[in-house]
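**User:** Everyone, produce a chain:

**Assistant:**
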Amino acid sequence: MKNDIDIIALRQPESFDDPLTEIARDGARRMLAAALRAEADAFVA
């Protein structure tokens, strides 16, 4: 039996160092938060 196994480390979303990706993720988080706030306000009203 062979013992030579290739292990490839996968990148985790939190470890991504691309500034444009971080800006896009931050924008997506803000848009989601705003949509949830608007939906909650509409539900309460």
Remarks:
- The helical segments are 19-44.
- The chain is about 60% helix and 0% strand.
- The chain has a mean pLDDT of 84.
